[in-house]
Design brief:
With about 350 residues, the protein is of the alpha/beta class. The chain is about 35% helix and about 20% strand. It has three domains: about 80 residues, OB fold (Dihydrolipoamide Acetyltransferase, E2P) (Beta Barrel); about 140 residues, Rossmann fold, CATH 3.40.50.300; about 60 residues, Probable gtpase engc, domain 3 (Ribonucleotide Reductase Protein R1, domain 1, Orthogonal Bundle). The strands form three sheets. A six-stranded mixed β-sheet has the order 10-9-8-11-13-12, sandwiched between helices. The protein has a five-stranded mixed β-barrel with strand order 1-2-3-5-4. It binds guanosine-5'-triphosphate, magnesium ion and zinc ion (ZN).
């Protein structure tokens, strides 16, 4: 198996050579079921578990490998292996877990994020902004795919609404079912490129995966379930090699996407507001009730929709709240871990 097809290059070779030990080989995580990882290696696919030492030493769930990661593993019997170490990530797509105060990784080492929405009830410019912040935040180029074009009479209107919020992100209108608009999507699928599909459940991520693969590998929602909300057909993150090169990471739909990180991704997503704010009288203008606010002025003149500023404020508050909690929970996790370790040490004596 030639790992270059899976994105292996000199950069990964260097990162691997820093962490490797005799008998270890590189591999890329294709998917994960509970604690068992499917990994592609030069000897084909293997099943790996992370070493006991790694488990013992890790502090947070984001230390563990995720689909798309490059790891160092040691083959044991048959196609089984022990995963010893992680090659330093180029990036990862992170969001906040719904229930826990912890980040969740949707994938690692990503070149493009396809933000998939469908041109039916899912379409929502505010949600698009949220996904855009997450992509920019993690240094991943977003591409917006408006799927189910075949179902929508006002597709052109939706396109314009999407264009108004998606500064710097290309937008393509497609039908994964009728296979239209796929040429533009294929142009991102070059050898070595890793593309993650994100979006709500039922927007057609797996249908698109199958369309690009040219065969039905991923199960998709049946027609009967089509308008049932909250049913997740895809349950794990899986990486697929496309026939024309490139890798596609299909993910389970997200019911709700919460932000994780600092406010850097906001600047790219709301580049229009950032640029207007250069002319605000006060450098730290919050565009709320300050005098001489160029953003408010643009709204009054009808150059900027009020909802866009509301959305900016909402996401900004969410991120600020998040980062204040983040420090607290990090310390808390460390404290728990050390408590556990000291208990174990006491037992040994
Ligand atoms: N009309 C139409 N239906 C589509 C299109 N793409 C997908 N569908 C249908 O939408 C439903 C959901 O598609 P999936 O591919 O399973 O959606 P998903 O995003 O993978 O959903 P999760 O795995 O739950 O996140 C299926 O019934 C598809 O046949 C399209 O372009 N047009
Ligand atoms: Mg799916
Ligand atoms: Zn202002």
């Amino acid at each position: 198996m030639d790992l270059h097809q899976y994105g292996w290059n000199n950069e990964w070779q260097n990162k691997f050579s820093i962490i490797t030990q005799p008998g270890w080989i590189p591999g890329r995580i294709l998917s994960q079921s509970v604690d068992l990882y499917q990994i592609i290696t030069e000897f084909g696919e293997m099943n790996g578990k992370i070493s006991g030492r790694w488990r013992y030493e890790s502090l947070s769930s984001t230390d563990y490998p995720v689909t798309g990661d490059w790891v160092a593993l040691q083959p044991s019997s048959g196609s089984n292996a022990v995963i010893h170490s992680l090659c330093q990530r180029a990036n990862s797509l992170m969001r906040k877990q719904n229930t826990k105060q912890e980040a969740q990784l949707l994938g690692a080492n990503i070149d493009f994020a396809f933000i998939v929405t469908s041109l039916d009830h899912d379409f929502n410019p505010r949600r698009l902004e949220r996904y855009l912040v997450i992509a920019w935040e993690n240094n991943i180029q977003p591409v917006i795919l408006l799927n189910k074009a075949d179902l929508c009479g006002e597709a052109e209107d939706r396109l314009r609404e999407a264009e108004a919020v998606a500064i710097g992100a290309p937008i393509h209108m497609i039908s994964a079912k009728q296979l239209t608009g796929l040429e533009s999507v294929r142009s991102y699928c070059q050898t070595g490129n890793t593309i993650i599909l994100i979006g709500s459940s039922g927007v057609g991520k797996s249908t698109l995966t199958n369309a690009l693969l040219g065969k039905s590998i991923q199960p998709t929602q049946s027609i009967r379930e089509d308008d049932s909300h909250g049913r997740h057909t895809t349950t794990r993150k899986s990486l697929f090699l496309l026939p024309e090169g490139g890798l596609l990471l299909d993910t389970p739909g997200l019911r709700e996407i919460q932000l994780w990180g600092d406010t850097a991704g906001l600047s790219s997503t709301f580049a229009d507001i950032e640029s207007l704010s250069q002319d605000c009288r006060f450098q730290n203008c919050q565009h709320e009730s300050e005098p001489g606010c160029a953003v408010k002025d643009a709204i009054e003149k009808g150059k900027l929709p009020q909802e866009r500023l509301d959305s900016y404020h909402k996401l900004q508050k969410e991120l600020q709240y998040q980062s204040s909690r983040e420090n607290y929970w990090e310390l808390e996790a460390r404290r728990k871990k050390w408590k556990m370790i000291s208990k174990m040490v006491k037992k040994l004596h």
